């Protein structure tokens, strides 16, 4: 007795690169995206890449004057290689650089730490439901909306010798002179202005936390502190890291507030940006460019540490990737259920 067997063969997979395009994507979409982004990339190249390359090139030269073969005075720029960078660690220029570097780091760490604590407290206060919450949110925006130069003038009036600060303290502290008092004045003014920035970003992160999570925690007997440590802080960590990163990058470039509040040439508050400005104001463009390049590398190093080590999701790529994985898993589940 013979029978006929029927063979079921799966269709062969198309070779890589010749399959149908992924859902929602056309073959020319990449070229169109590049074409649409080209104006933005061109502007970024003009305002970021060109000034950076120009600063690096300028830092390799130094203005020099001398006598030519005929005895005439000549002035110009001579190539000195890395001499401007070597001067950052020696002599009077090295002392000013190390002092400015220390001031920049001190102001960044101190102000960002205080702003993070105060901003988190403001976010927790604004996130609670109470009468007048809208007024509180609007009033917190006021310091952030005030221009930095205007804020510096306002605090200079407060910290002058016969100002409000000394009247309240009953003392005669010279806030705008050299010394620790000037550092404290800059820290107070900076924290007052920029703490609302962190508070508003953290508040935005708190708004997307489902209320059911807190309800479940209350049912399990978790108090306010337990909810803060186990729910609120872990869930707002990505937003908080991005806010702290932005503030650190901004604080590292601090210039206008101490410049207006205390004034230029003050050793106790001179930052790297102020030092580069002073060098360029003295027509020493080579050393000024060297200071600017070192500041750029400092800012880049901090950004890399936050993004690579601490996991700050600045572009939202991780969140987008997680959503795509969840969507793909959901699609696979539905496909398997229909089979």
Model description:
There is one protein chain. This protein is 68% helix and 4% strand. The protein has 339 residues and is mainly α. It has one domain (79-325): Orthogonal Bundle (MetI-like fold), CATH 1.10.3720.10. A two-stranded antiparallel sheet has the order 1-2. The longest helix has 37 residues, at 91-127. The model is unreliable at 1-8 and 16-23 (pLDDT under 50).
| Uncertain stretches of 5 or more adjacent residues | 1-8, 16-23
Main-sheet strand order equals 1-2
Note the gap between the termini.
35 Å
What CATH architecture do you see?
Orthogonal Bundle
Q: What is the residue-mean pLDDT, rounded to a whole number? A: 81
Q: Considering the protein shown, what is the CATH homologous superfamily?
A: MetI-like
- The tally of structural domains comes to 1
Q: Class in CATH?
A: Mainly Alpha
Oligomeric status: single chain
């Amino acid at each position: 007795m013979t029978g006929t067997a029927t063979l079921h063969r799966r269709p062969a997979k198309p070779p890589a690169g010749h399959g149908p395009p992924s859902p929602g994507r056309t073959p020319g979409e990449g070229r169109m995206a590049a074409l649409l982004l080209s104006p933005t990339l061109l502007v970024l190249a003009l305002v970021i890449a060109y000034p950076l390359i120009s600063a690096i090139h300028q830092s390799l030269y130094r203005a020099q004057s001398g006598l030519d073969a005929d005895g005439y005075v000549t002035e110009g720029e001579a190539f000195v290689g890395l001499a401007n960078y070597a001067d950052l660690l020696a002599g009077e220029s090295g002392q000013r650089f190390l002092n400015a570097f220390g001031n920049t780091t001190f102001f960044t760490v101190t102000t960002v730490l205080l702003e993070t604590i105060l901003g988190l407290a403001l976010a927790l206060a604004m996130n609670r439901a109470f009468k007048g919450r809208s007024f509180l949110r609007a009033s917190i925006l006021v310091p952030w909306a005030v221009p930095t130069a205007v804020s510096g003038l306002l605090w200079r009036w407060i910290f002058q010798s016969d100002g409000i600060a000394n009247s309240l303290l009953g003392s005669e502290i010279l806030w705008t002179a050299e010394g620790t008092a000037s550092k404290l004045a800059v820290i107070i003014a900076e924290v007052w202005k920029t703490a609302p920035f962190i508070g508003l970003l953290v508040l935005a992160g708190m708004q997307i936390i489902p209320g059911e999570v807190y309800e479940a925690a209350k049912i399990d007997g978790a108090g306010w502190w337990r909810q803060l440590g186990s729910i609120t802080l872990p869930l707002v960590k990505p937003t908080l890291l991005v806010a702290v990163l932005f503030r650190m990058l901004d604080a590292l470039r601090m210039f206008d507030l101490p410049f207006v509040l205390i004034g230029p040439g003050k050793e106790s508050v001179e930052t790297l940006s102020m030092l580069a400005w002073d060098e360029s104001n003295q027509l020493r463009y080579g050393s000024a460019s060297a200071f600017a390049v070192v500041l750029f590398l400092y800012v880049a190093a901090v950004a890399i540490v936050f993004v690579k080590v601490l996991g700050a999701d600045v572009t939202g790529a991780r969140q987008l990737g997680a959503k795509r994985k969840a969507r793909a898993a959901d699609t696979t589940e539905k496909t398997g259920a229909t089979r």
